[in-house]
Amino acid sequence: MRGLALALLLIPAVAHARVVNVEAPDGIGRLNATMQAGDVALLAPGEYVDFPEPRARATGGLRFTFIAAPGASIPGGRLAKPYVTLRGFTVHGNFGCEETADRDSILDCVVSGSFDHQGGDYDTYARCRFDGTHFDLNKATLAASSGVTIIECEFPRLGQGVDSGDHLFLVWDADSTTMMFCRKDIIVEAGLPKDLGAEWHFDDRHLRSRGNHTRITLDRASYAVWRWRSDTSLDHGCYGNQFARDTIVVTGPGGGDVSQLLPSSSADCAKKPGRAQCIGAWDATMDSCVIDGTAVGGAGCAMIWQGGMTGWSIVHTVFRMTGPAIEAFDIHRSRLAGSTLVGNPALRWRDQYQRPLWRPGDMTVTGCTIDGGVRFDRRMTRAAGAYKPSRNTYLTPFRVPAWPKDATSNTGRRGAVHPRARAARRVVLSRRRLAVYGAAGMLALGVLGAGIVIVRNRAKGAA
User: Fold this and answer.
1) Distance (Å, rounded) from C-alpha 188 to C-alpha 355?
2) Which of 54, 53, 42, 47 lies closest to 25, judged by CA?
3) Which of 56, 94, 138, 230 has the most neighbouring CB atoms within 10 Å?
4) Any idea what DSSP says for residue 382?
5) End-to-end CA distance of the chain
6) CB-based contacts of 372: which residues, under 8 Å, 6+ apart?
C-alpha cells in the first residue's frame, strides 16, 4: 500500500482525470472503452482476460496509467497506444510495443514470454523480467525504432530448448537504444541450426550500453556468437556505439570449429568495400569492459573484426580468448590503451580482401599488457608509422616485437607486478615506512620525556 500511495503522489493532477478501481476478470475490457488520457487505473489482484488498449486518443502528452496490485495478471500482446504506463503486472505470453506505441513505460513487470518490441519509439522498460526464449527488437515485423530504453531488466532463459527460428537475442534497425544494468543468460543448444547465433545486431547504431552482464553457453560451436553487421536490405551499419563496464562471458563445451565473437562483420560487399554492409561496425568505444571466452571447450573461442576495424577506441578493457584476443584487418583510426589482451596470439593484424592498407597512425597500442604475442601479415609491416606501440608489457615467453622498434615497452612474468607499478609501490611503501618510523620515534620521545619528568619529581620528593 505504501508503494501504491507513492505512485499516486507522483501522478500529476490533471483536470477531469479520474482514478478508477478495476476488478478482474473483465474490468480492463470495460475500462478500455471509457478511459481518457490522464486517467489512472488501479487494478485489483486477479487474472484479467483483456489487454490494455484504451480507445481514446492521447492528448497533450497525458498518459493512460495502469497500476497493478500484486497478483494482477494480463494476457500477452503488444501495446498499440502511445503514452501508456503499465506497472507491476504479471504478463502471460510475449510482450512489447507496436510501431504506433511511442513513449510507453513498462515498469516492474514479470513476463512469462519473450521480449517482443516492434518499432515503438522512446519506450522504456525498467526492472522487468522476461522469462521467454527470445529477445526481438524490431525484426519480427522489420520495423525500426529510436530511443528505446531498457534498464535493470533480466532475461534468464534465452535460447533454452530452442532448435529452430531466429537468432536468440536479435536487434534490427535500431537507433539510439539505451541498455543499462541488464542481465542476459543465453544458451546455444546443440540442435540450433548452424546459421543461428546467440546475439546478433543488424544496423544497431548510437547504442549506449553500460553495466550489462551477458553469459553465453555454447552446447555447440558457433561461427558468430556475438555479431554486429548491416543487413543488405538496409545498409545503415552499426556505428557510434558505446560500451562501458559491460561483461560478456562465453562458456560451454563448444565444438570442433572455433566459435567467434564478431564486433564487426561483413555481409555482401558486392565489390564496394566502402558500403556499410561490407564494413559492419565502426566508430565505437569500449571502456572498462571484460569479454572472456577462455572457458569454451572444443576448438575454443576467438574475437575477430571480420568487417574491419575502423574508428575503434578500446581502453581499460580485458579480452581473454583461447584463439586470437583481437584479429583484425582494414584497420584505420583505432587505438588500444591500458587494456589486457590474452590469446593465441593476443594480437593478429591481417591484410585481407584487398582492403586499403593501414596508414601512418592508424593503430596505436599504449600501456597494454599483452599475453600471447603479436603477429603481422608481411605486407602490414611495409607501412611505416601505421602501427605505433608504446609502454606495453609483453608477458614471457613472448618478447617485444621486432617491428616496429619500440624502446618504451618491456617484458614481464605472468603474475608479476609491472615494473612501473613496482616502482610506484616502492615509493608508497617508503612513504609508509617513513610515516611509521616517524610515529614510532615520536612515541619513543614521548615515553622518554615522561620518564624524565617522573624521575625529577621523585628526586624532589626525596630532597
Assistant:
1) 33
2) 47
3) 230
4) G
5) 83
6) 325, 341, 342, 343, 344, 345, 346, 347, 398
pLDDT average per 10 residues of sequence, the chain (463 residues) = 46 67 97 97 98 91 96 97 97 97 98 98 98 97 97 98 96 98 98 96 98 98 97 93 98 97 87 82 98 98 96 98 97 97 97 87 98 94 95 94 94 65 44 52 56 53 52
Residue 376 has, within 13 A of its CA and on its CB side, a CA count of 16
Residue closest to 40 by CA, chosen among 11, 2, 82 = 11
Q: Give dist(CA 461, CA 453) in Å, integer.
A: 12
Residues 6+ apart with CB under 8 A from 202: 139, 170, 171, 172, 173, 229, 230, 231, 234, 238
The answer to whether the beta carbons of residues 262 and 220 sit under 8 Å apart is no
The three-state secondary structure class of 453 is: helix
pLDDT tens digits for range 87-123? 999 999 999 999 999 999 999 999 999 999 999 999 9
Q: What is the C-alpha to C-alpha distance for residues 167 and 202, in angstroms, rounded to an integer?
A: 11
- DSSP secondary structure string for all residues of 385-401: TSEEEES-EEETT----
DSSP state, 379?
G
Task: Count CB-CB contacts under 10 A for residue 228.
Answer: 30
The three-state secondary structure class of 350 is coil
Which set of grid coordinates corresponds to residue 57? 486518443
Antiparallel, parallel or unpaired: β 309-310 and 281-282: unpaired
- CA max distance for the chain: 111
- Could you tell me the sign of the dihedral formed by the alpha carbons of 301, 306, 308, 310, in that order? negative
Closest CA to 87 of 49, 119, 40, 55: 40
Q: Rounded distance, CA 81 to CA 39, Å?
A: 14
Q: Rounded to an integer, what distance in angstroms lies between the CA atom of residue 412 and that of residue 399?
A: 9
* In contact, 327 and 352? CB cutoff 8 Å: no
Between CA 100 and CA 372 the distance in angstroms is: 51
Residues 6+ away with beta carbon under 8 Å from 211: 180, 181, 244, 245, 246
Nearest Cα neighbor of 124 from 95, 100, 102 is 102
Q: What is the 3-state secondary structure (H, E, C) of 241-276?
A: CEEECCEEEEEEEEECCCEEEEEECCCCCCCCCCCH
What span, in angstroms and rounded, lies between the C-alpha atoms of 239 and 217?
27
Helix (H) or strand (E) holding 215: strand 213-218
Give the number of other CB atoms < 10 A from CB of residue 288.
17
